[in-house]
């Protein structure tokens, strides 16, 4: 008889399956399935902070520099990020929730012809030929109408991001080959994709991700509700303290293969280990919050606090800055003080040295 799954097993499973042995950049992205992107750099972007723990000898900016040569695309899944190109067929052709009017379709067709003729183009080049004025953006402010149109064309699968120059997208035309599977099969595959990244998952979190998948595949919204019910029936699961948990077929959270190591890690706020705040509280017993958009006087952890993981426990957080070419770390602890266990100071020093190398700056004094 197999060993019953416990919360301790789920914690080991959550950490060990995500922190696989560092590999190549393409293999790491393929294994993760999706890497969430964020523009804030404190001290590096979230996608770089996520990949540095899973790619051998990774340096900040490697993904952007190597992106044009990878079979990877910037696109929308549960949110915006990077994913292997083969997954795009599950979501394209993508129909937006709101149809364009005739005038917008005409403008998009003209811009698409322009990009096709040039091979690729950025917003400034398009703006120089098509001045569409300003428009209201999703945050209630005003933005360049050309930029807004290009975003819409990218979302609908008319354009892809070919590369970036100084952080700005350069677009190229694209023709997505649709997946021949049925809508039900595609919806199941999308759920399996996000589950493989974020497992083990509480039932409520699985439902949240299924809802978020309507962002990447709005045309599968109705099917996704049915797929969620199928997932609850077909996936391995356990109920602990009134909460049901799910994980991918073929994995056993109670297996001895899932073990913690001695390496200390400062995780990105959107790292798969800490992304699900409900799961975080269930596994580590305290509430981590991303406070970059919280007014400074109300912040408890800091602008861009990185959860601090050691020996399977998230003990606190760190805010990192670079001043005069040297990394600086400001740490906070759930217990109010650093752990007293032997090996902690050395593990912290090693992690800060790895971060300094990743950022190409000097280590803290």
Order of helices and strands: HHEHHEEHHEEHEEHEHHEEEHEEEH
Q: State the end-to-end distance.
A: 53 Å
**Helix/strand/pairing category:** alpha+beta
Shape: globular
Strand content: 15-25%
Q: Mind summarizing the main beta sheet?
A: 4 strands, antiparallel
Give the tally of β-strands.
14
Helix segment tally: 12
Strand order of the largest sheet: 11-12-13-14
Helix content: 25-40%
Poorly predicted regions: 133-142
Arithmetic mean pLDDT:
94
The Cα radius of gyration reads 22 Å
What does this protein look like?
With 365 residues, the chain is of the alpha+beta class. 37% of the residues lie in helices and 18% in strands. The chain is built from twelve helices and 14 strands. A hairpin with a 3-residue loop joins strand 2 (72-76) and strand 3 (80-84). Helix 8 (183-198) crosses helix 10 (221-234). The longest helix is centred in the N-terminal third of the chain and has 17 residues, at 102-118. The radius of gyration is 22 Å and the shape is globular. The relative contact order is 0.13. Mean pLDDT is 94; it is low at 133-142.
Question: What layout of secondary structure does this protein have?
Answer:
Layout lengths: L6 H12 L6 H8 L2 E2 L9 H7 L9 H5 L5 E5 L3 E5 L17 H17 L4 H7 L4 E3 L5 E3 H11 L3 E7 L2 E6 L9 H16 L2 E2 H14 L4 H14 L2 E4 L2 E4 L18 E2 L10 H8 L21 E5 L2 E11 L2 E8 L10 H16 L6
Antiparallel strand pairs: 1-3, 2-3, 4-5, 6-7, 8-10, 9-10, 11-12, 12-13, 13-14
Helix pairs in contact: 8-9, 8-10, 9-10
């Amino acid at each position: 008889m197999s060993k019953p799954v416990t919360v301790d097993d789920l914690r080991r499973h959550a950490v060990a399956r995500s922190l696989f042995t560092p590999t190549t950049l393409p293999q790491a992205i393929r294994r993760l399935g999706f890497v969430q992107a964020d523009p804030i750099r404190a001290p590096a972007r979230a996608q770089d902070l996520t990949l540095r723990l899973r790619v051998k000898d990774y340096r900040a900016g490697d993904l952007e520099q190597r992106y044009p040569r990878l079979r990877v695309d910037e696109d929308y899944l549960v949110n915006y990020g990077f994913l292997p190109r083969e997954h795009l067929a599950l979501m394209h052709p993508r129909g937006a929730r709101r149809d364009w009017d005739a005038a917008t379709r005409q403008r998009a067709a003209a811009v698409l012809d322009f990009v096709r003729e040039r091979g690729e183009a950025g917003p400034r080049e398009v703006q120089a030929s098509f001045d569409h004025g300003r428009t209201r953006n999703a945050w209630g402010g005003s933005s360049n109408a050309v930029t807004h149109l290009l975003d819409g064309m990218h979302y609908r699968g008319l354009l892809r991001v070919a590369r970036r120059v100084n952080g700005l997208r350069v677009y190229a035309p694209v023709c997505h080959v649709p997946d021949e599977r049925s809508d039900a099969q595609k919806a199941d595959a999308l759920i399996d994709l996000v589950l493989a990244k974020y497992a083990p998952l509480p039932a409520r979190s699985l439902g949240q991700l299924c809802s978020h998948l309507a962002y990447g595949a709005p045309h599968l919204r109705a099917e996704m509700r049915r797929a969620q019910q199928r997932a609850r029936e077909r996936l391995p699961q356990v109920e602990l303290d009134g909460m049901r948990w799910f994980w991918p077929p073929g994995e056993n959270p109670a297996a001895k293969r899932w073990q913690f190591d001695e390496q200390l890690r400062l995780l990105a706020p959107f790292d798969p280990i800490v992304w699900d705040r409900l799961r975080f509280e269930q596994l580590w017993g305290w509430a981590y919050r991303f406070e970059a958009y919280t007014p400074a006087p109300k912040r408890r952890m800091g602008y861009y606090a990185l959860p601090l993981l050691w020996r399977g426990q998230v003990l606190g957080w760190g805010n990192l800055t670079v001043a005069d070419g040297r990394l600086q770390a400001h740490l906070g602890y759930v217990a109010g003080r650093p752990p007293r266990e032997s090996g902690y100071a050395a593990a912290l020093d090693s992690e800060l040295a790895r971060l300094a190398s990743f950022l190409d700056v000097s280590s803290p004094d």
